[in-house]
């Protein structure tokens, strides 16, 4: 017989996924209950209420998609976009490419605009593009782990609102570690995942949908034939091309009618609920400050080890740092030694940055001083093995001094 | 602060989901590891190997879709069917409707044929329909929980093969509790879920894909722009309309190239692996016999309680029994008392059977004599409260005599 799979001891300090909070894993070990058990539906309602707090929204339609974060992007775009609709994608990294890819598979006309990797958009660039392109939807990533950049969104919602354009945002990598104000910033649809700052595993994707987007989605509601009742009236718009990602039907499933759709991924629901509880218990502001502090300590530690950081630091996400692989050092050898000698995973990079930078994260459960200091200590050993010039102890000392200042 | 969600004590004896095997929940509590950690990829390879045994196949492409079982249906149909293709759906219940629904959202021309609920197709009916409809794909459910019926598939694969038609099968409700021979029966694509006889939670969907289907899918491969390398050659066929459910890309992710796609739902992977280990450890034949025995004991017990069974019993799945709600008994009152007084969930029914039958399951972890006997004992109490005429003790006695005969 095959032996059970026993995960090896690792500390995940890459761009995500990261170690799950043990509380989340414990919550997921709860026994299943029936899909329409009143305690199940109460659990779903509690999850909706908690994620409203996580997303800083009053949106009724705040729930989970039973897929990874990528699936929630697709659910949003396939439900909003009809074939032939135009979508504007301001892209500043690999996950901007992904939005382009998914939107074009929905049959939309995609107009992408770009800034060099390592930077973000000025809101005016987006306003100008909206004027030229006249899209139905603007789709943008908040934090793109491929470049570590965080796109400021404060002004973009208003720009879209004024232009009568819907704004979709993928905040998977940023939520919980950086501010995200769905209602205040006028974001129409936001989707995320659990595997970054929310301390959980991939496999469930929280979403929030504002009123303007709900109208568009409801106009396309076509209740599945197998469960349609006489009183169900279909929308006038064309049917959504996906059944699984049909947000109108998923809303009917999470809403008071509890119309049968998928069989809820109950263990992932338990986990998602616990992720939200952990974050709300700590407080959104406290969690963001914790990510800012640990991210800064990590960055200062790396600089003190004679390393150079990637991208405009003022626009960096709190939770992940890009760092250039120094001259003469083999990036993969360092990552290999970090993983196999020290049990710590740091990240490689995509596309043009592959072999150029490492990406080191400190997020969620691993946004902790001990995790940062361990990572710096072990990285120092690996860099010394590779003959990188550095002052021993300087990295950890720089990080500790950041923690010391913050404690005052 | 909100309190943690603590699932109430329940025993799930409906049509699924059912109680997860505690071994599966324990496996899922393992800590996460990185997506390209060699131990992660080894875990994925081990999962593929075990599910080949579960599906009775040598198909290389046997892996998991990160969604509920419904998502794997969509992944199969959207990857096989191009807009305008014809698909034949022999439908004998609610999940036949679902295949129709999903296929038509793929833009396919759907021709559905029907038999009355409670019966199944004669293979000749399908052969005749293929001759008339000339479909590219036949899509069929093996076990439809809405009617409890199991469609014999032994001959249908050959019929499809001879006609040059691809055969897709949704075996979510049947696998592990009823025979399923992917290769011997010439099934081209089969998808399932964990939440029935496989003893796990919903949220991961095993799939197996044979060579003929792989060819169709590979002709439509279009590697995502964000990760395409120069040596990737796109297929000549039209791009698959979904990114998340693009089987060509998901094969590249599970295959030796390990091309980035979604972030694997690691906890669900651990759970899926353990589900397969449990089944293979018991042995497929032993597990099927166990389901047959417990299903028979349940059915005989119900008959002995002066109840009438639904549908052609010779074609019933081993793992779920439909039983008429007797005259003068309020179906919902019994289900309510079963759940709230006795902590046992039994199932209601869909569409034309709503209020007409209950569906009682004995599957996966709950295909056990104690679970069957507890259910019969408590149901007797509920029926007595509703003044249904029965002989006290007859139900449990009938079930026990089945167990006694089997033990001889």
Q: Would you kindly provide a written description of the structure presented here, covering whatever features stand out?
A:
Two copies of one chain form a homodimer. The first copy, chain A, is an alpha/beta fold. Chain A has two domains: 20-280, Type I PLP-dependent aspartate aminotransferase-like (Major domain) (Aspartate Aminotransferase, domain 2), CATH 3.40.640.10; 284-407, Aspartate Aminotransferase, domain 1. The first copy, chain A, is 40% helix and 13% strand. Chain A has helices at residues 22-28, 38-55, 69-80, 94-105, 123-133, 156-163, 211-218, 247-254, 266-282, 284-304, 331-342, 369-385, 394-407, and strands spanning 11-12, 61-65, 86-91, 109-114, 137-141, 143-144, 149-150, 166-170, 189-191, 205-209, 320-324, 344-345, 357-361. In chain A, the strands form four sheets. In chain A, strands 2-10-9-8-5-3-4 form a seven-stranded mixed sheet, with helices on both faces. In chain A, β6 (143-144) and β7 (149-150) form a beta hairpin. In chain A, α5 packs parallel to α6, α11 crosses α12 (369-385) and α12 runs antiparallel to α13 (394-407). At the A-B interface, α1, α2, α3, α4 and α9 of A face α1, α2, α3, α4 and α9 of B.
